[in-house]
Amino acid sequence: MISAVTVRTSPSSNSPILETLQEGDKVLLKSTGATYDTIIFQNQLAYIRTQFLSDKQLKNRDVILRIRDLDPNAPMVALTFDDGPNPIATPKILDTLEKYEAIATFFDLGSLVERFPEVVKREEAIGCEVGCHSYAHKNLVTLTAEEIEEDLEKAEAAFQKVLGHKPYLYRPPYGNINSTVKEVLDYPLITWNIDSLDWKLKNKSKNLAQIRKTKNYDGHIILMHSIYNTTADTVAILVPELIQQGYQLVTVPELAYYKLGINLRTRTVYNGF
Ligand code: ZN
Predict the structure, then answer these.
(1) What is the mean pLDDT of each run of 10 residues along the chain (273 residues)?
(2) What tens digit of pLDDT does each residue of 69-90 get?
(3) CB atoms < 10 A from the CB of 59, how many?
(4) Which of 7, 107, 148, 209 is the right S-S partner for 133, CB 3.0 to 4.6 Å?
């Protein structure tokens, strides 16, 4: 049982201690290392032993985040992509993100994470956040707590196997959430406030027109799907357009951190900030 975690000024057990944290305290993860993880603590870089960021420690506390240094005064928007990974459309989306040094949040299905592990690994490797969108895309509000738990265990096992850790975020299929879903899913529950309708429109120009109906994207979460080539084509136009307009393309946890100064809490629904 860990009772206290020391935060140090450099990645060495001989270095000065900045602070001693208790179980449940918040830290912001900047990057991971073999023996020390780099965190942002009191607005500076600091270090804690990697063992304290295990999945077991993550449960029932604030989610530990990967936050980049961004301009807090420039507008930010989070692109989110559901239902993947897809071996054709998702890599095209990743190509665009990489080209413009942008990142996004993917909500992947455990069943497809198993089938296309390399695509999921690439999502994370380029700095995207990879959240869970269930294992089998069932409408969770029609399931019992046991059935939701069963789906969750399968999904978590898939992410664990491919990425080496459980996901930090969860987007329930269709954005459907009830009290049973909240009870079982010990995750921040992420929905959206801009719907591209890409699953229905399946047309680059129509997708773009739908998204452009919103005039100010700052703090918003845009819903798209990573399984359509038409969406990949949309992203190839949208990403440079947003950047040209001055937007920073960020993950959902980054958006929460910069817009509200918060870590996402589990069993809480967020549709934008
Ligand atoms: Zn979905």
Answers:
(1) 71 85 72 77 79 54 63 95 98 97 97 98 92 98 98 96 90 98 95 98 98 97 98 98 97 90 85 95
(2) 788 899 999 999 999 999 999 9
(3) 12
(4) 107
Distance 112 CA to ligand 1 centre (A): 12
For residues 245 and 123, give the distance between their C-alpha atoms in angstroms, rounded to a whole number: 25
Name the residue with tokens 């029932």.
Answer: 60
Contact 228, 198 (CB under 8 A): yes
CB atoms within 10 A of CB 41: 21
Q: How do residues 141-199 score in pLDDT, each as one tens digit?
A: 999 999 999 999 999 999 999 998 889 899 999 999 999 999 999 999 999 999 999 99
Q: How far is the CA of 172 from the centre of ligand 1 (A)?
A: 8
Question: How many residues does the structure list for the chain?
Answer: 273
The DSSP annotation for 60-85 comes to TSPPPEE-----TTS-EEEEEEES--
Cα 209 to middle of ligand 1, angstroms = 22
State the first-to-last Cα distance of the chain, in angstroms, to the nearest integer: 36
Q: Which of 209, 27, 15, 221 is nearest to 106 (CA)?
A: 221
DSSP category for residue 174: G
Catalytic positions, written as ranges: 82, 225
Domain borders along the chain are 5-58, 76-270
Its CATH architecture, for the domain 76-270, is Alpha-Beta Barrel (3.20)
Tokens in use for 254? 């980054």
CA of 176 to the centre of ligand 1 (A): 10
Q: How far is the CA of 151 from the centre of ligand 1 (A)?
A: 14
pLDDT attached to residue 66: 63
